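Figure 3 (text version): structure tokens given as input.
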């Protein structure tokens, strides 16, 4: 299996100019732990995780740096640290060196990247533009749907997956992040939705897609989102 087979294609993103508070609200509202930062051309310029937000301190309360930090860090590093702790926009606190993969990267390679770099997600980039994202949850979902053997499959129901995703993306509401994994014409739905009615709608859309033999609904309802 490759990145294209499990990636979430309807990616929640933020702009570099978005206020830090709005970035935090984006994570909470969409029940996600990280978000890519993209420019007007959908080119990824950074990524923000919960850790980035937690490391940011409130303006004026930054702790005094230790002597060794001052001694061994360059002026550029010190300026960058100042911007990350005092900045008010996404571009100030985002991680700029983003590890990315292309749609044909194998899941084994992605698992190695996540483990080796201690990260939870990798954006998927094609022709220098963001086309999806693969998270640890996506890998777990693939594993839960079919087991270890699923990772080694060379022929999967890619066309059917794309058809289901296309129908989901045409639904009149947005906000819920739903992923689709297809194995031998059986669709597994994963993600977080707001209501039972929304959950049923996603299931109905999948069941109505020509070629789908069965639907396994793993969607979770999270109430109280705004």
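Below: residues designed for each position.
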């Amino acid at each position: 299996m490759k990145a294209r087979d499990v990636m979430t294609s309807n990616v929640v993103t933020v702009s570099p100019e978005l206020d830090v508070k709005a970035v935090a609200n984006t994570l909470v509202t969409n029940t996600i732990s990280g978000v890519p930062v993209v420019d007007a051309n959908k080119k990824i310029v950074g990524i923000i995780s919960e850790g980035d937000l937690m490391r940011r301190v409130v303006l004026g309360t930054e702790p005094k740096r230790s002597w060794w930090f001052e001694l061994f860090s360059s002026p550029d590093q010190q300026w960058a640290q100042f911007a990350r702790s005092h900045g008010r926009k996404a571009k100030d606190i985002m991680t700029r060196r983003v590890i990315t993969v292309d749609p044909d990267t194998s899941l084994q390679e992605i698992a190695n990247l996540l483990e080796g770099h201690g990260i939870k997600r990798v954006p998927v980039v094609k022709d220098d533009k963001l086309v999806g994202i693969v998270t640890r949850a996506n890998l777990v979902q693939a594993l839960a749907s079919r087991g270890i053997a699923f990772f080694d499959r060379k022929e999967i129901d890619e066309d059917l997956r794309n058809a289901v995703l296309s129908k989901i993306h045409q639904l009149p509401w947005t906000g819920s992040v739903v992923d689709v994994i297809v194995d031998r014409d059986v669709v597994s739905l994963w993600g977080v939705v707001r209501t039972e009615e929304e959950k049923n709608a996603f299931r109905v859309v999948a069941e109505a897609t020509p070629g789908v033999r069965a639907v396994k609904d793993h969607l979770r309802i999270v109430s109280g989102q705004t």
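DSSP finds eleven helices and eight strands in the chain.
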